[in-house]
C-alpha cells in the first residue's frame, strides 16, 4: 500500500489529504499518562525503546493518522553531547547552562551515538510494527532552538541568554551551533538508517530574530543539516518548522532546501498558497486550542484550511503541538473531518 504522507511530502499529492499532529503522543491521552507514570524520569522514558514505541503507536491505533512521529525529545541531543538535562514537573526542562568556554569544552560528540542508541532502537521497532501505509517520521530540534535551552538552562520567553551570547561571544556561539549541526545531521542520518521515512527539524523559537541573526542562526545551520542529510539520503524528505518566522518564511524555504515546511498558526493561507506552496509541500496549521474547545468551530476551521490548500501538496497538521487539556474525542472528530475531505 502506498504511503500517502510520504508521497505528498515528495510533492505528489493524491485525492485525500494526509495528516498527523505535533505532540500526538502526549498527556491528553490517558493511555500515554499510564505509560508515562511507569518511567522513573522523562529522559528515561525517551531512552526506553519498549515504552517509547508503545506511546508512538497509541494515537495511530485510536485515530489512524498517516504518520507516526518517533517519541523522544529535542533535548536528547544536548543530553547525548554530555550536558545534564532533566525535567521537573511544573518547571519544564532544566539543563546545566553552557555560557562559557569551560562548560562548552566538556561537551563532546564522542559517546553521542552510544547514548542515543535506544532512540535508534525505537525507530527500528516502529519500522517493524507499523502498518505498511503509515509513514514513520524521525525528528530533531534545530540548532538555534536547542541552543536556547542549552544556554539558558531552561525554557525562556525571549531567549535572552542565547541572544546575548550570540551577540556578545559570537566565536563561542558559532562553535556551539557547529557542534549542533554536526551532531544533529548525524543523529537524523542514523534515524533514517534505522527506518525513518522522513524527518522534521523543529525550530520552535525562530520568532522575531533580526534579519542577520535569522540568517546566521536559523537559515545557515538548517541548510548545513539539510545538505549533510541529503548527501547521505537524497530521497528522504526533510520538513522544516521555523515557527513564527513570519515574513522570513519564503527565504527559509528557498535557502535551506527543505522539501516541506510546517506552518505555524499565524501564517495566512492565501499567502502560504502563493508564496510557499508553489515551491514546496506545506504542512499545517490548525490552532491547537481549537481542539480543546472542539465542535463546529473546529470543523469549520479545519475545512477552511483544507479548501485553501487543496491546490497543491498539503499535509494537515496543527500550527503547534496539542496542549495537555485537549479532549480525545475532539481529536477523533478532527481526524474524521480530514479523512472525509477530497481534493
Ligand atoms: O510530537 C510527538 O508526539 C513526538 C514527541 C515529541 C516530544 N517533544 C515529546 C514530549 C516531540 C517531537 C517533541 C519536540 C520538542 N520538545 C520541542 C519542539 C516542538 C515544540 O513543541 O515546540 C520542544 C521545544 C521540546 C522541549 C520540551 N519537551 C518542552 C518545552 C516540554 C514541555 C515541558 C512540560 O513540562 O510541559 C517537553 C516535554 C515533552 N516532550 C512532553 C512530551 C509528550 C510532555 C512531558 C511529559 O509527558 O511529562
Which terms would index this structure?
343 residues; alpha/beta; TIM Barrel; seven-stranded parallel β-sheet; 16 helices; globular; binds coproporphyrinogen III
CATH architecture tag: Alpha-Beta Barrel
CA-based gyration radius = 19 Å
Q: Strand pairing plus helix content: what structural class?
A: alpha/beta
The CATH class label is Alpha Beta
What is the number of helices? 16
Tally of individual domains: 1
* Main β-sheet description: 7 strands, parallel
Overall strand count: 9
Percent in helix: 40-55%
The CATH topology is what?
TIM Barrel
What is the strand arrangement across the widest sheet?
1-4-5-6-7-8-9
Low-confidence stretches: none
Strand content: 5-15%
Cα(first) to Cα(last) distance is 20 Å
Cofactors, ions and other ligands in the entry: coproporphyrinogen III
Give the topology string: H per helix, E per strand.
Answer: HHHHEHEEHHEHHHEHEHEHEHHEH
Shape: globular
Give the averaged pLDDT, no decimals. Answer: 97
